[in-house]
Amino acid sequence: MRHKEEILSIRKAKNQPNILVIGDIMADRYIWGSASRISPEAPVPVVNVKNETVTLGGAANVVQNLFKLNAKVSICGIMGDDPIASTVLDLLKSGKIDASGIVADKSRPTTLKTRIMAGNHQLLRVDRETTADIQENIETKLLNKIKAKLRHTDIVLLSDYNKGLLSYSFTQKLLTLCQTNGKKVMVDPKGLHYEKYTGAWLIKPNKRELAEATVTEKIETNEQLIKAARKLIAKTKSQYLVVTRSEEGLSLISKKSHEDFPVKAREVFDVTGAGDTVFASLGYFVACGLDLATACELANYAAAIAVSKVGSVAVTIDEILSLINEHE
């Protein structure tokens, strides 16, 4: 009942939280068709294309989730100087997202993941990307844009997809800038080099990523999870870890406390984008002034809705409220 009252209060509030997302911006292209025969040239299906769609991916998908939750969102990152960048900018602007923090980097393409679909089955994925660390001049341009936006920002979310933006150098400069301006930073991490996140307020790995980051052979029990999490907290000097645990829900861990949040899902159709949904929801509810435990509980509801649908799907406040009503 308490969560229902908090959701209703947020829905009625006139002031939307201002959230700044910094991360790897991507586009997801889907080529939809049917496959009813095998090619005579090679043992592969022939896809008769019916339609093509492009959606926001990576950090841009986090932004899309935040917008659906009714936040005011700005995004900072890099894209290439190419047609797909123009498409992404059009999609962001159509969603009323502030994209003025994006820097064009002519040395790399805009990250594009193309999926060839036969019905609802993915036959092939083709990636177009460069994952080299960004150059110093790009760092400087981005930091200047971010500095100008921090004054009006309630919380900062770093969405790392390991595509070169959040290098050690840039991430550390960014975290120092945020600390100087008194802004909490939440990180959705990627890769093994968590030392670059040192100073973040909260880090959100999944269980597999936590095991890899702490060189833990296996995490099968709560005790092993808590031990690995506190090892990572000590390494990064973060205050909190939120560990997503797939069908087990998620866990909130600090140096001295630990709380589990069981999964709310009734059916799981597709986990695509569920991590972005959890991350965006956590950031949104914290920016709305809720305590972190409540934000975790509500993010769990959002994740349950996301996995019950096919594809990356943004979740609304009304959908979360509806699911809470079902659990009463």
Automatic annotation (TrEMBL):
Pfam families for the chain: PfkB
Entry GO MF terms: kinase activity
Keywords, ordered alphabetically: Kinase, Transferase
InterPro entries reported in the protein's UniProt record: PfkB_dom (IPR011611), RfaE_dom_I (IPR011913), Ribokinase-like (IPR029056)
Keyword Protein transport: no
Residue intervals of the Carbohydrate kinase PfkB domain: 18-313
Lineage: superkingdom: Bacteria
Keyword Signal: no
Protein known as: D-glycero-beta-D-manno-heptose-7-phosphate kinase
Organism (species): Niabella yanshanensis
Species lineage: Bacteria, Pseudomonadati, Bacteroidota, Chitinophagia, Chitinophagales
